[in-house]
Amino acid sequence: MRSLTRNAIKEASIEVVPQESLISAPATLQVIDVTSISDAQLDFTAPLALNVTAAGQLCSFVIHFDTIFDYAAKGGVRTAFTTSCEAMPTHWKQTALPLKEPLAVAAGDRISGSVTFSRGLEYKRAYNISVAYEVNGSHLGLQMWTTE
């Protein structure tokens, strides 16, 4: 049972993450077209690929979303906003996925793996998130978080 406790679900944190705490550029995990996506496609696994740009401690993975409303083809306008750490904070903030054990990384390191999003059983707007990750090809871990 010890291996299960190492990977136990930990709660995600909704907060404003300071831009200066970022140690990599953002990476797109999924593009969702809300006009055509099916319900089943809202649960997904996406590849993770981050290039570390500054040495430091990897303490959390941080998730944000961008929204684009593009009505230009229909004679309207294109409007967009982001909940990124690099933009003006919104009430959505960012989702921080804290690691149980921070990891020292150097500029130039590559963090890779996969991220799985699965919606809660009771509340379909909440996600359970798991990340399998490695640094420079060395397997490091699997961790799960809940947003319910």
Summed up, what is this model?
This protein is mostly beta strands and 148 residues long. It has one helix at 2-6; strands spanning 9-11, 13-15, 44-51, 56-63, 66-70, 78-82, 94-105, 110-119, 127-135, 138-146. The chain has one domain (9-21, 42-146): Hnrnp arginine n-methyltransferase1 (Distorted Sandwich).
Output the strand order for the largest sheet: 1-10-9-8-3
Give the overall form: globular
SSE order, as H and E? HEEEEEEEEEE
Level-1 CATH class name: Mainly Beta
How many beta-strand segments? 10
- Unreliable segments (pLDDT under 50, ≥5 consecutive)? none
Please identify, by name, the CATH architecture: Distorted Sandwich
Main structural class: mainly beta
N-to-C CA distance: 24 Å
Number of helices: 1
Q: Major sheet: size, sense and barrel closure? A: 5 strands, mixed
CATH topology category name = Hnrnp arginine n-methyltransferase1
Rg (CA only): 17 Å
Count of separate structural domains:
1
Residue-averaged pLDDT: 90
Name the CATH homologous superfamily: Hnrnp arginine n-methyltransferase1
| Fraction of residues in β-strands | over 45%
Assign a percent range to the helix content.
under 10%
Structural overview:
The protein is mainly β and 148 residues long. It has a single domain (9-21, 42-146), classed as Hnrnp arginine n-methyltransferase1 (Distorted Sandwich). Helix content is 3%, strand content 49%. Strands 1-10-9-8-3 form a five-stranded mixed beta sheet, with no helix packed on it. A three-stranded antiparallel beta sheet has the order 2-7-4, with no helix packed on it. A two-stranded antiparallel sheet has the order 5-6. Strand 5 (66-70) and strand 6 form a beta hairpin. The radius of gyration is 17 Å and the shape is globular.
